[in-house]
Amino acid sequence: MSEVARPTLSDALTERMLELIRTGGHRPGDRLPSTRELSQRFAVTTPTLREALRRLEATGAIEMRHGSGIYVGSAIERIVLPNPNMREMRGAQLLELLDARIVIEPPLAAMAARRARGDDLAELERVLGEAATHLRGEDAELHEANMTFHRATARLAGNSVLHEVVDSLLTVHGAEQREILQIFDDRRRDHDEHHTILQAIVAGDAGAAEERMRAHLVDVKTVIEQRLHQPPK
Questions:
Q1: Nearest to 46 by CA among 55, 31, 54, 35
Q2: At the fourth CATH level, which superfamily is domain 91-228?
Q3: Distance between CA atoms of 71 and 58, rounded to whole angstroms?
Q4: 75: Cβ–Cβ under 8 A, 6 or more apart, which residues?
C-alpha cells in the first residue's frame, strides 16, 4: 500500500493565502499585503512564501506586478482553468480538442442569439471590425481578435462555466490556432464566416447561429485533418 503524500509547507501556505483572500472579501484587482507582511503573518521565510505565490500566480489566482505589489487575479473565482503546463498539441489530441469545440460552441452561439442585446451586440461588432483591419498579414493581431470573438460569443450565452470551458480550450491550443490561420491561408473567408455567425446572433436567429458556428468549426477541423494527412516534404 503506497504512502499518502503529505502536504508540504508550500501546500499549506497556498491554502492559507486563498483563505486570506476569501475571508478578507477581496475581489479581482484588489491589492494584497506585501511579501514582507505576508512572511511575517504566516511566520515563514520569503523564499518559501514566494514558492506558494508562484503556484497561485500560475493559476491566475493572484497577479504579481513588479514594483507595484501582489493583487488578486481575475481567475480567482473561475471553476475551469487552462492547464499552465500544457505542451503543444499534436495529431489526434488536437482533433479531439476541436471536436470538443464543435460540440460546445454551436449551442452557445444559439444561446447568445437568444440573449444578446444592445451593448452585447455592439461588442461583437467591434471585435469583428477590429479583425477586419488585420486581414493583410497581421496574423498575431487577427488571431487575437478572432479568439476574442469566440470568447465573447461564449460569454454572451450566459453560462459562466461553459464560457470558462471555451476560454480554456482556446488558451490551451492558442499556438495551433495561429498555425491554422496560416495554413487555412484564406483570412477573408474565415472572417466572412465569423460575420455570418454575427449576423445570425444580431437577428436573434438561434438556429442559424448554431448552424453557422458548427459549419465554421468543422471547416477549421477539416483544414487540420488535411494538414495531418499531408506527406512530409
A1: 35
A2: GntR ligand-binding domain-like (1.20.120.530)
A3: 13
A4: 59, 60, 61, 81
> 10 Å Cβ neighbour count for 74?
13
Confidence of residue 83 (pLDDT cuts 50, 70, 90): low
Q: Where are the beta strands (DSSP E) in the chain?
A: 62-65, 69-72
* Residues 6 or more apart in contact with residue 136 via CB below 8 angstroms: none
Number of CB atoms found within 10 A of residue 71's CB: 16
Q: Alpha-carbon distance 45 to 5, whole Å? A: 23
**Boundaries of every domain in the chain:** 9-72, 91-228
Is pLDDT above 70 for 81?
A: no
User: Are 89 and 215 a contacting pair, CB within 8 Å?
Assistant: no
8 A C-beta contact, residue 152 and residue 194: no
Backbone angles phi, psi at 31, to 5 degrees: -85, 140
The amino acid occupying position 231 is P
pTM > 0.85: no
9-72 CATH fold: Arc Repressor Mutant, subunit A (1.10.10)
Q: Distance from CA of residue 12 to its chain's centroid?
A: 28
CB 221 within 8 A of CB 98: yes
What is the C-alpha to C-alpha distance for residues 23 and 126, in angstroms, rounded to an integer?
39
What is the percent of the chain where pLDDT is above 90? Answer: 39
